[in-house]
Structure formats: structure tokens, C-alpha cells
Amino acid sequence: MIVIKDQDPIYLEHQIDIKLDYLNHKYISGNKYRKLKYNLLEAKGLGFTKILTFGGAYSNHIAAVAAAGKEFGFDTIGIIRGEELVDKIESNSTLSFAKDQGMLFHFISRNVYREKTSATFLNDLKSRFGSFYLIPEGGTNSLAIKGCEEILRLEDSKYDYICCAVGTGGTISGLINSSQSHQHILGFPALKGDFLREDIRKFAHQENWSLITDYHFGGYGKIKPELIAFINQFKNRYHIPLDPIYTGKMMYGIFDLMDKGFFAEGSQILAIHTGGLQGISGVNKLLKRKNQPLIDI
Ligand SMILES: *Cc1c(COP(=O)(O)O)cnc(C)c1O
């Protein structure tokens, strides 16, 4: 039985509320919980005992799948991008967390990783690991979208804008599908990439959305000091932690757009806090090595 605890939105400024969707679970946080929910039920229903998925060294999805496997009784296998990580598990907080949760790793080169959706490669994995329930990189499939459709509730229909961070586009697709047609969904991609619009169109059933592509800060791994400063100021002022890969960029973007008068006077904005806080310690390690200011924790 999976229980989803919902949070009431928190009042921030006259124009914006934030839904703390990451408080739904201690380890399987935020949108990753939403995306896994129906996949886990499906895997159980089909009698699978093993879940296999893909991710990078700091992946929130890898951490979430590992924790979900432990909690709901699945063996988990993580196919990790980057062979060099094989002897860096202990120094990587995401991987060491996932390992503690019982995840078995298989490290592959970036070249091989590109094959992750090919039938041949998946068959190789089957002969190596036996039968498994496959969850794609980032966890996005139609059951994940179904879970993300549960983020918005009836009382959220008063908002004119609903904002979220975008990685693979699964979360925003769920928000779009469960939104009212008078609402507009704004996605803030955490990476560069024009493929996202196409990917979202595959799952989203309405046209009331757009992507704001000016706030990716160079992509997943590029951490800019101005973003870190914003995250620290935000936490200091509102006591809400943001992560540097997704929610920090989204919130920076929303505040910048508010400054620039993007939102009409009186319009109501809801930002979805999708979690991702497990990634902070990994990023802080990188920042420390570069002698740059850290994220306050
Ligand atoms: C994975 C993730 C996202 C991106 O979700 P998609 O469904 O892949 O677009 C956004 N925010 C956080 C915190 C995440 O961990």
C-alpha cells in the first residue's frame, strides 16, 4: 500500500505559492515518488521481483528507485553511466546511498549508455540479470505520467500558472493532463534540448503549456555561482531548500520573470517543488573542490 501525503501550499509572496511535493516521502522524494507509484504497482501485479533502471552519478531517480525497492520488496539494478565510477561509489553520496538501500550496480561507458533503449542491449541485460521490470532513465513512461497527474488537486484550479522543473518531461506532462484548460503550465528545462517539446507532446493531452528555456544555466552538471547565491538567499528568506539541478533553476526563473513583468497583475502562480534535495551534497563536494561557495544545508 502506497500512501501519498499531500502538503498544503505555503504562502510566499502576493503572487506565488509553492507546493512542497517533496515531503511525500523521506527518501523516495517528490516527483520520483509520483513517477514510481503506478510502476511499482504494475511490477508487483505482473509478479516481477526485480527492477532495472538507468541513471547518472547524481541521479535523483537512481536514489529513489533504490529506496523504493527496499521499501516495497524489489531487488533493484542500476545501470550507471560512466565506467570510471566503479571505484568511486563510497565517495559519491547518491551511489553510496543507493548501494546501502541494496541496489546492485552495473557501470557502463557513455557510448554503451547511449544504447539504453535498443532491443539488443536490453536482451544482453536480460541474459545477465534475469527477468526484470524495466523503468526507463528518469522514470518517464505512461504509468509515471499517471502518477504525476495526481500532483494537482481540485483546489489548485484557482491558479493561473503552474510551474515545474523539466528533465525528461514526464512531470510536466502529468501536470498538463490534470490541469484545467484556463490554466497555463510553464516548464523550466534543467538542460538544453529541443527534443523536449516532442517528448512532452507524446504524453500531454492539452496545448496549455510552454517551455521557458532561458534558465538551464548550461545544463545538468554546470553549477553557476549566481544560482547557488539565489538558492541560499531563498532558503534564508523562506526556509525552503531548493536543489541546484531542478527546483533552484525553476524558482530563479520564476522570480526573474516576475521582475520582468511576465505575469499579468493579479495572476496567481503555483510552483511545484519536485524534490531533488539528495543531490545537494554531491554538488557541494564539487563546489568545494573548485573553491566556490557551497549550498547551505
Ligand atoms: C527528475 C526531476 C525533475 C524532472 O522531472 P521529469 O519528469 O524528468 O521532467 C524535476 N525536479 C526534480 C527535483 C527531479 O528530481
Automatic annotation (TrEMBL):
Any one GO molecular-function label of the UniProt entry: D-cysteine desulfhydrase activity
UniProt keywords, alphabetically: Pyridoxal phosphate
All copies of domain Tryptophan synthase beta chain-like PALP, residue ranges: 15-275
Required cofactor(s): pyridoxal 5'-phosphate
Keyword Transmembrane belongs to the record: no
Organism superkingdom: Bacteria
UniProt entry tagged with the keyword Disulfide bond: no
Active site: 59 (nucleophile)
Similarity comment: Belongs to the ACC deaminase/D-cysteine desulfhydrase family.
Family matches, as PANTHER family: 1-AMINOCYCLOPROPANE-1-CARBOXYLATE DEAMINASE-RELATED (PTHR43780:SF2)
Name listed for the protein in its UniProt record: 1-aminocyclopropane-1-carboxylate deaminase
Species assigned in the record: Winogradskyella epiphytica
